[in-house]
Amino acid sequence: MSKQILCLPGDGIGPEIVVEALKVLDVVKSQFDLDIEVSEGLVGGASLDAHGVPLTDEVLAVAKKSDGILFGAVGGPKWDDQPMMNRPERGLLKLRSEMGLFANLRPAMLFPQLAEASSLKHELVAGLDILIVRELTGGIYFGEPRGVRTLENGEREGYNSYVYRESEIKRIAKVAFEAAQKRGGRLTSVDKSNVLEVTALWRELVTEMGAADYSDVELSHMYVDNAAMQLVRAPKQFDVMVTGNMFGDILSDCAAMLTGSIGMLPSASLNEANQGMYEPVHGSAPDIAGQGKANPLAQILSLAMLLRYSLGEIEAADAIEKAVSDVLDQGLRTGDIASEGCTQVGTTEMGDAVVKCLQVLSS
Ligand code: NAD
Ligand code: IPM
Ligand code: MN
């Protein structure tokens, strides 16, 4: 039976970069004889405009049945005055939470060709290969109660709740320990346990699990403020980092820049049934949307992750990653990763170049 991929381009640069990933998918489908059917749906602002909600029940139902979801990006100034629970971003958050996509893997590795594009000195980032494991369906993003209330004196007060259950902490820690076992054997758990009870519980449980089940993993703990500083001071000290939803959001944008651009960073969001949604770490980039300037490589690398993790098509995933590296070898760069002596290209040219490299690889 053919595998089903649901493609959700979303808003802003989302549709521009997803088109490039789909071109790449077409090539690997024929090269590796993959039986894959792709369907498309609306999410975010695009869905709001068409249906009045950022995610319809129909699209959610298709997502739940898919073998993999390729997600672009959502959001933009057009919808910024929507009520919180109807913003484009809610479409993404609902997909994550309804599908139980709790484990967000955000690898940050430097393609050696992009050392010049990193904002850090070459020696600090050469060989950089970090995996951020971000908890994605809990924490302050989803904790109750939340809202804005009016106090007795008429002043308004906004509030959110930072909540984690033991089971939520243990299942994300397990993913991170196991990832560390397969990689460099080191895990840094990032928290704010000096201030927040919820993260003191996090540290306690991660410590217990490390001692009981993962004595082969070298476990350390770091406060999130220090972790942000260490990421830009000496990022290669990290192998796997595990943290909660909001800290992971912030630290992964920070790690992105070490690799040259947020336009290079893919991600996978997995549930307990190993279903997955794959998306770039960046957003809809309204400042460059519609201009043909966006870097499609994070989206293309997200497709490679989908093929690797959800479809088990390792050769096709390897070929895509090799083609991306070859394009960088040729000196082609979108504006975000541009450097002296390289050829600046747009979104479509970059996608075409990856396609061409794949074709050369197979000939
Ligand atoms: P952003 O990631 O969209 O953009 C930040 C900066 O990075 C911008 O200057 C942008 O031009 C640049 N950039 C991002 N992706 C790029 C790419 N592929 N190529 C070249 N440059 C790129 O973050 P933001 O500006 O804070 O947010 C814009 C909108 O996106 C907001 O509505 C936000 O909620 C949404 N957002 C969505 C997602 C998602 O869908 N997963 C993630 C983050 C932000
Ligand atoms: C991300 C984004 C999302 C998040 C937003 C758009 C809901 O920033 O995927 O990193 O905060 O998780
Ligand atoms: Mn983010």
Automatic annotation (TrEMBL):
Gene Ontology molecular function terms on file: 3-isopropylmalate dehydrogenase activity; magnesium ion binding; NAD binding
Cofactor: binding details: Binds 1 Mg(2+) or Mn(2+) ion per subunit.
Enzyme class, broadest EC rank: oxidoreductase
Catalytic activity: (2R,3S)-3-isopropylmalate + NAD(+) = 4-methyl-2-oxopentanoate + CO2 + NADH
UniProt-annotated location(s): Cytoplasm
InterPro entries xrefs: IsoCit/isopropylmalate_DH_CS (IPR019818), IsoPropMal-DH-like_dom (IPR024084), Isopropylmalate_DH (IPR004429)
Source domain of life: Bacteria
Keywords: Amino-acid biosynthesis, Branched-chain amino acid biosynthesis, Cytoplasm, Leucine biosynthesis, Magnesium, Manganese, Metal-binding, NAD, Oxidoreductase
Biological or metabolic pathway of the protein: Amino-acid biosynthesis; L-leucine biosynthesis; L-leucine from 3-methyl-2-oxobutanoate: step 3/4
Binding site for substrate: R96, R106, R134, D225
Residues at the site labelled Important for catalysis: Y141, K192
Domain Isopropylmalate dehydrogenase-like, residue spans: 4-354
Keyword Magnesium: yes
Functional description taken from the UniProt entry: Catalyzes the oxidation of 3-carboxy-2-hydroxy-4-methylpentanoate (3-isopropylmalate) to 3-carboxy-4-methyl-2-oxopentanoate. The product decarboxylates to 4-methyl-2 oxopentanoate.
Subunit and interaction comment: Homodimer.
Family assignment from sequence similarity: Belongs to the isocitrate and isopropylmalate dehydrogenases family. LeuB type 1 subfamily.
Protein name: 3-isopropylmalate dehydrogenase
Source organism of this protein record: Endozoicomonas numazuensis
